[in-house]
């Protein structure tokens, strides 16, 4: 189901890449080999291999790789419940993502506050962070598929954010270091260089600690994922293979 991919991507996009956030596979031990797309009145699961490679659930009906799967009344009811409960879970997952974005933005702002940046740089940084946060919130709200959050896509967005924000901070710190050096305060110049280095190497670990606040919210999703796994348990594709849309580990 790759909600974990969506969750991780959303939370590290504003952290300038490299953040390995807690996700559903780590906290709830939930995983899937499928991507999920929400379409009008139906759920579409797809993967490259093995079969079934495309599973469509719509109002108690099941199609796998283009073939209609005959279902008894009990299985139809289970699929209807599966569809309804999964759709109810999606906004809850998105809410955790949005909270993660806000935590990341606040963390970046607090890191910047500790650098004693000039007022103009602080104002511009706040503007850029707010713009990126609003954009990411909008992307999360509009997303109807985990295909939107594949690794390359998330990495590209993170790099885009980093290329917009990092030079702004680096330029301000560089100017401060240059001014200190020219005034003969080599100790201050060295301290500024150390601050810049720590921002590069230490921020990710500090952000991961901040994101621990999300753990209870992620844990609250686990019972719903377990319920989905139970509802799809035993359902089979047209060729008799188990669907295994969602797998729960221990």
Walk me through this protein's architecture.
It comes from Dyella flagellata. Keywords: Signal. This is DUF2884 family protein. Pfam families: DUF2884. This protein is α+β, with helices and mostly antiparallel strands. It has one domain. 61% of the residues lie in helices and 10% in strands. The chain is built from 8 helices and 7 strands. The strands form 2 sheets. A 5-stranded antiparallel β-sheet has the order 2-3-4-5-6. It has a two-stranded antiparallel sheet with strand order 1-7. Helix 1 runs parallel beside helix 5. The radius of gyration is 23 Å and the shape is elongated. The N terminus is likely disordered.
**Gap from first CA to last CA:** 17 Å
Structural class: alpha+beta
* Sheet with most strands: 5 strands, antiparallel
- How large a portion of the residues is in β-strands, by DSSP E? 5-15%
Strand order of the largest sheet: 2-3-4-5-6
* Number of DSSP helical runs: 8
| H and E string | HHEEEEEEHHHHHHE
Radius of gyration: 23 Å
Mean pLDDT: 82
Q: List the uncertain runs.
A: 1-22
Beta-strand segment tally = 7
Total domain count: 1
Overall spatial form: elongated
Helix fraction bin = 55-70%
Structural descriptors:
5-stranded antiparallel sheet; 10% strand; single chain; alpha+beta; two-stranded antiparallel sheet; disordered N terminus; elongated; 7 strands; 250 residues
């Amino acid at each position: 189901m790759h909600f974990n991919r969506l969750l991780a991507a959303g939370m590290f996009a504003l952290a300038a890449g490299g953040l390995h956030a807690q996700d559903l596979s780590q906290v709830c031990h939930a995983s899937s080999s499928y991507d999920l797309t929400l379409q009008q009145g139906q759920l579409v699961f797809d993967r490259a291999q093995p079969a079934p490679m495309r599973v469509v659930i719509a109002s108690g009906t099941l199609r796998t790789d283009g073939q209609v799967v005959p279902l008894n009344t009990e299985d139809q009811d289970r699929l209807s419940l599966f569809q309804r409960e999964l759709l109810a879970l999606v906004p809850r997952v998105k809410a955790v993502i949005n909270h993660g974005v806000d935590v990341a933005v606040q963390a970046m702002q607090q890191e910047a506050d500790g650098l004693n940046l000039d007022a103009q740089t602080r104002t511009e940084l706040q503007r850029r962070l707010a713009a990126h946060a609003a954009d990411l919130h909008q992307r999360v709200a509009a997303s109807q598929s985990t295909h939107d959050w594949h690794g390359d896509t998330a990495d590209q967005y993170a790099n885009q954010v980093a290329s917009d924000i990092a030079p702004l901070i680096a330029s301000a710190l560089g100017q401060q270091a240059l001014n200190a050096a020219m005034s003969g305060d080599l100790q201050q110049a060295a301290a500024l260089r150390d601050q810049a280095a720590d921002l590069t190497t230490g921020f990710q670990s500090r952000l991961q600690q901040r994101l621990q606040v999300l753990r209870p919210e992620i844990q609250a999703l686990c019972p719903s994922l377990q319920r989905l796994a139970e509802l799809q348990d035993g359902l089979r594709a047209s060729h008799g293979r188990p669907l295994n849309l969602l797998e729960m580990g221990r």
